Amino acid sequence: MSKLRALVIALALVITSAAAFAYYNFIADVPLPGKTIASPELQQDTIFAVGAYGLRIATKDCFTVQITNTEVSKPKKGNTWEEIWTLKVCERVGRLPIQFTINEDGTGSYALDYMNIKWKTVGTTAKKK
């Protein structure tokens, strides 16, 4: 009985997780558009956190998050540099500052600066009556 119960719970978790990910539309293929100097691996590592943040901004009628541009905002000095990644979330566009660091072992890390993102509205999805 306990094996069957565990199987049912595991199956329910898989179905729920798959439904939640299918519900949102996150568009970000590596290499990202723009002039990022982050390696493809570091871009891929950063995408999930950026997309998760973008989904917090999404509205009840729109669930699309897209990275539309990347640019270096502070050139590489030693092993660190800063970039701004532009997100389009429904009818809003935001510029998210990110600090990148290449570690001694060759891996990279990032820090998203959520407090300094600048959002603007570029359109509306509201239907006119």
What key phrases describe this protein's structure?
129 residues, alpha+beta, six-stranded mixed sheet, 2 helices, 6 strands
Structural commentary:
- The chain is an alpha+beta fold.
- The protein has one domain.
- 31% of the residues lie in helices and 36% in strands.
- It is built from 2 helices and 6 strands, in the order H-E-H-E-E-E-E-E.
- Strands 1, 2, 3, 4, 5 and 6 form a 6-stranded mixed sheet that branches.
- The longest helix is centred in the first third of the chain and has 22 residues, at 2-23.
- The chain is flat and about 55 Å long.
- Mean pLDDT is 81; it is low at 16-23.
How would the blueprint of this fold be written?
Elements: H1 2-23, E1 25-27, H2 40-57, E2 64-77, E3 80-89, E4 92-102, E5 108-112, E6 118-121
Parallel strand pairs: 1-2
Antiparallel strand pairs: 2-3, 3-4, 4-5, 4-6
Summarize the structure.
The protein has 129 residues and is an alpha+beta fold. It is built from two helices and six strands; from the N terminus they run αβαβββββ.
**Coarse morphology:** flat
User: For the report, how would you describe the main beta sheet?
Assistant: 6 strands, mixed
Number of domains: 1
Distance between the termini: 56 Å
- The overall average pLDDT, rounded, is 81
SSE pattern:
HEHEEEEE
Radius of gyration: 18 Å
**Contiguous runs where pLDDT drops below 50 for at least 5 residues:** 16-23
Number of strands: 6
Quaternary organisation: single chain
Counting helices, strands and paired strands, the structural category is alpha+beta
Helix count, per DSSP? 2
Task: Determine the fraction of residues in helical runs and give it as a percent range.
Answer: 25-40%
> How much β-strand is present in the residues?
35-45%
